[in-house]
Amino acid sequence: MTAPAFDTLALDVPGPIARLTLNRPERLNAMGATMLRELAEAARWFDGNPEVRVVIVSGAGRAFSAGADLRDSPVGEASPRSGNSWAVRREVGQLGLRMADAVEGMRAVTVAQIHGYAVGGGVVLAAACDLRVAAEDAVFSIPEIELGIPLAWGGIPRLVREIGPALTRELVMTCRRFSPAEAKAAGFLNRVVPAGLLREEAESLAAQVAGMPSVPITITKEHVNAVTRAMGQGSTSFADGDALLSAAFDPESLESARKYLERTVERKRR
Questions:
Q1: In whole angstroms, how far apart are CA 263 and each of 124, 175, 255, 266?
Q2: Which of 10, 189, 196, 249 has the fewest CB atoms lying closer than 10 Å?
Q3: Contact, 253 vs 148, CB < 8 A?
Q4: pLDDT tens by residue, 11-47
Q5: Angle at 126 between CA 49 and CA 113, to 5 degrees
Q6: What angle do CA 34, 37, 43 make, to 5 degrees?
Q7: How far is CA 75 from CA 69, 89, 114, 122, in A?
Q8: Measured in whole angstroms, how far is the alpha carbon of residue 220 from the centre of its chain?
Q9: Could you count the other beta carbons within 10 Å of the beta carbon of residue 164?
Q10: Coil, strand or helix at 74
Q11: Beta bridge partners of 110
């Protein structure tokens, strides 16, 4: 089976267990507009290949994903100064949500293999996967509010579903880092293993799932997703891209983002 070529992703499809790798290691796999579009496209491609049973989602280099790429952010395309029409700018603002929905809705079971940093949108991508395995030295954080924007991409409903409303509020509002041990205790992770065993553990879990009868596996995935949607009845990610864009160009938000970036640069210099 010949997988399509992407600019920001690498697909390896040797059989029923495939691997989708975020492939921008020089940017810690930060997700810009191109990667968001390609992730949604890759999800659709897997849906057209029913022989793929499980997809392991991982990151090349030192991180799973550093979240939204501030240099190639969809927000730039959605700026009123971009010259794009309102309709185009609004659709660009929804790219992250479209990506997360496409990954979550894949027919194949998805296993997130998390190492290094999982930041902001990287946490949302992991939350969109069915199963999650992390290295014990991985680092999680959700810094969006410190950047002057709300957590978008359907992140709030997904986190409330996985770890509950109280911890979601704390982690999103404080922007503090949290460990794999805390994430597992909260129910976000299935397994935490030493870094050297991460790939082996993710592949072992994928093999267990791929070895089961395909029909009940598919039904179970869809059933669990249907139940979680029903549990969250009344909550929605509708127009969270609109909320993101509204906040992104607020003067206070812009100033907060500037300070955050200055601190980030200063930390790198030390």
A1: 24, 14, 13, 5
A2: 196
A3: yes
A4: 999 999 999 999 999 999 999 999 999 999 999 999 9
A5: 75
A6: 135
A7: 10, 8, 26, 17
A8: 22
A9: 12
A10: helix
A11: 55
